[in-house]
Input
Amino acid sequence: MSQTQADDVMKSRPLYGRLVPKQGSYHFIVADGEGGEAVASLLNAAPDMKPRAHIIYIPGANGTDLTGMVSGLGARVFHPAPSYASASQRINKVLGDAHMGLQLYAAGTEGLIGQVQRDAMAAGLPHDALTTEQRGSLARRVQCVHCKGITENVTLDPFVCAHCGLNLFVRDHYSRRLAAFQGVCIDAEDPGEVPPSEERFK
Amino acid sequence: MSLDAPFKDPFFRDESFFGDYSYRNSPHAVKRFPFPFPEDDYMYSVNMEPHVKGRPGSVFEHYFDVDEHYVSEMRDRARVLEQDPLRCQSLPHMTLAGWDLLELIMEKFAEDYPHWFSLTKDGNRWHWINRPLGIDQKFTFLDESTLPYGPFEYITRQAQGDFTLQDQREDNLWIEAGMVTSQADWSLDFDIGMNFHEWHAPVPLAHQMGIFDRALKFLLALQYGAPVRRFNWTMTVDPLLDTSPENYPKWGPSKTTMTPETIGQRQHLRVELQTLIRLPRSNAICFPIRCYLISLDDLVTQPKWARRFHRVIRGLPDELATYKGFIRNKPMILEYLARFDDGAPTSPGWWPED
Ligand code: HEM
Output
């Protein structure tokens, strides 16, 4: 599985790199789904990171679960988590306690990377302390502009808002603060006239 | 602050921008409407000119234009904020820029409209009087605890048009405060914290044309005391100031109920007079977005505007009409306007009678 290429270049959308080892006293690594493979490449390339590595791994919403493989990589701390939400307190604590020299890595879906980026920004981490790599599903996190609820792992366009039930199309407009794209009602002018959904973000 | 005793000055109209839509332009307001097209066609460009005082009676006569809709617009803003408090947001580090803006608006209002506004200063102890809105406020400049709202919200509840404040760092502008209740379909709550290219991402064609790169470069060098202005425009059904994406399911259907009989009264040209102002203490850039609405029936009373607007809409690329949200009614609009275009040449510039 190679790196995911973004389907289009959009101005408000961040670009991602590759996980490469950085000089640091502590390595905090958050990954989901296929991002586990990027973590493996990282630690295999720089085994001396392992005694100072803390990994949080979340299985992908598309079913990709590399928990077994990632737990065997030999990191000092390995924490499997069922979802980003369930891990977020832990992530924010580690980021809040961060000393100079902490290196942060995020690998996997855009939704996961965006949330790590958002939390790192909020914790005041210098932005060059974060390294990212997009892998696996192109599923998006989308905020409904009407009810403000965020729907995770959106692969279809249009889709139904998980909070208010409106039919939304996904606008190419991305907020790093929210780590989410914008969803706008598609049938506001003609209620009920919803074009068939397509799998745009596989 | 109290809006209970407004309209004492008959200059200000008592009207609504939703519900029964009693908003109207007086014949005087029609004459001075900021028609934004200097030529018979339109395309995006880096259209910025110095914001200097212009013809007496025009919207350029004063630094900020206070017109006959002032009191009703401020009442509409209060209504929208009550329904959705997220329309006014300011990140914590933008407070100083808010004071900069408060000072600018108070000084310019008092200087340009002394019969309505007055500001007296005794060191940092200021006294502000806003007669049209019935406000008499003594406060300490730079001391937030002496005002009923933060400085940015306090003053933008008393000034027509939306306002955003942009911090400047990393060779970019960051939208980090806004009072946004009369927007052409964009969300402050979603955009806050973005940089110049990020918040402009949805605009078609302009990125590829290099417009945003050039505009940003220009703005980063914007000097204190040398503000600039530009126009933007779109189309709105009914004189609804608050065309927010948040409420789109509520106002979107109005686009489907216009008929050839009602289009003249219901379809409005929506013009934004945007200014870009460097602020002194914070070095932030303030961006007032002043919205003017005119019905097609009123617009065609000026023969030059009628001819030109027909030609502009006829030649507008569908991508722009789609982005601006009026593609479905474009044929009906053209049919209406065509009746007022005899093909005669138009003079350059936007003034109606030149
Ligand atoms: C620094 C202050 C500015 C702010 C806060 C601002 C904000 C915005 C926003 C929020 C939009 C709507 C985007 C959407 O669809 O979500 C927009 C559209 C646009 N902006 Fe700006 N803008 C600024 C300055 C400029 C400047 C200096 C230019 C000069 C070229 C410009 C050109 C445009 C154009 C061409 C559009 C599309 C408008 C349309 O077709 O209706 N903006 N702007």
Summary: DSSP finds 13 helices and ten strands in chain B. Residues 95-112 of chain B form the longest helix (18 residues). Chain B touches chain A at residues 187, 189-194, 197-202, 207, 212, 245-249, 252-253, 255-256, 328 (CB under 8 Å). Residues B 44, 46, 164, 166, 173, 175, 186, 191, 199-200, 202-203, 206, 211, 215, 219, 230, 232, 234, 285, 287, 320, 323-324 surround protoporphyrin IX containing FE (CB under 6 Å).
